[in-house]
Amino acid sequence: MILVPGIKVKENESFDEAYRRFKKQCDRNLIVTETRARRFFEPMTEIRKKQKINARKKMLKRLYMLRRYESRL
């Protein structure tokens, strides 16, 4: 089952306000990130960006574990 975001436009609500609410709902449902992840072709810039993010996460995790280990001593 695929949930498609949708909003009901309120009375006296401008297009911009309704569009903003729609964009927020799309962001909450991770639609844009999921479509990017499912794309077949990934440019090299996106691959490098993901590698950089993963390397940072890995480094922070090691640092956290090291500090946790040192606090026990």
UniProtKB/TrEMBL annotation:
Keywords: Ribonucleoprotein, Ribosomal protein. It comes from the Bacteria. GO terms for biological process: translation. PROSITE patterns: RIBOSOMAL_S21. It holds the Pfam family Ribosomal_S21. Gene3D superfamilies: Ribosomal protein S8 (1.20.5.1150). One of its GO terms (cellular component) is ribosome. One of its GO terms (molecular function) is structural constituent of ribosome. Belongs to the bacterial ribosomal protein bS21 family. This is Small ribosomal subunit protein bS21. It comes from Malaciobacter pacificus. The lineage of its organism: Bacteria, Pseudomonadati, Campylobacterota, Epsilonproteobacteria, Campylobacterales.
